[in-house]
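Risk register update: the risk of archive-format incompatibility is retired. Evidence:
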Amino acid sequence: MKILYDYQAFVMQKFGGVSRCFAELVKHLPLGVDFDLGVRESDNAYIQDIAGVKPLGYKFQHFICNYNFKGKWQLHKLYDKIIGGHYYPNYNHSMIVEALDKGNYDIFHPTFFNDYFLQHLKGKPFVLTIHDMIPEKYPQYFPRDDFQIIKKRKLAKLANAIIAVSENTKKDIIDILNITEEKIHVVYHGCSFPVFSNPKKLIEKPYILHVGTRNLYKNFNLFIKHSLPFLRNHPDILIVCTGPSFSGEESKILSDYKIEDRVIHYWAQTDEELFSLYHNAICFAYPSEYEGFGIPILEAYTSECPVLLNRSSCFPEIAGDAAVYFKMDDKSSNICEKLEYINSMSNDERRQLLNKQNKRLKLYSWEKSAKQLSDVYKSLM
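Archived output:
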């Protein structure tokens, strides 16, 4: 059985959950499941190290510099001619269309929602992965003609099978897209976050860790607002954010609350630095209102960092009893109570929580995920 994957996620992202998920699944496919990956030009961080596929050449937008200028395309064509290559404006697209037309595969699995492939399938089945329903759940943040909303709805109805990354996401697909339950298969993510012994402590003061983006439904501003009493009762404790730098709006909010020196940004440039930030934190706080799965939960588990979660969306499903939960809305929250609880835990209480997390972590592996995915493929044969 041969599966053909396309280039979309690996061109959209240099780093990111969608492309990493596909790379890990491809790497861990069981014996008897072969694959082709239709990617020639990509600067994706995972595609070579994880999937074992080495893209050739350069992405056009990164030739000479990272912005376009007059004559750049002509220079690239000349360069390509000199080195004897065969460059096309979108070689990845040309490559995957050629592979589709040849038909030397059993099942096609696009890595995002562009529907270009439909006219080239020639009756072959395709599987669609839906990681979340964020654009549909939060229409106030997305235009009605958003590419993902329109194409996802179209492809979901035509797909032979749909992969959802949690039961919560599956329920949203059924409710919002009106897809039958039998068509949707839940395949959880695994975790490949590396473990480092004796990681260097990067922040000297005690701190609560926030990972990733913070805007919109991520609830970061609301989390800060409700955490103010705790921060004022514990003037030595920081909140450390790794992810994008603070926006102007965030900086103003922190200044207005007079905590700009208490909420700091640290950009983790390596897995080892991120592991250290998790490992040495009082806890990892995840206030997001909605996620498809929540891979940072597994990263925190791996790093032996207590996990504090908003009781919403898929979080109880993924973390079970291996986390401390809080409730939060615009008017009220018990976040300070939960922060006080974690901060005052005895060594035995902390170890009990970490033991639960280690046990829960064993439920998730890319080998298991890839086996479940291959079973879906086989069911379509």
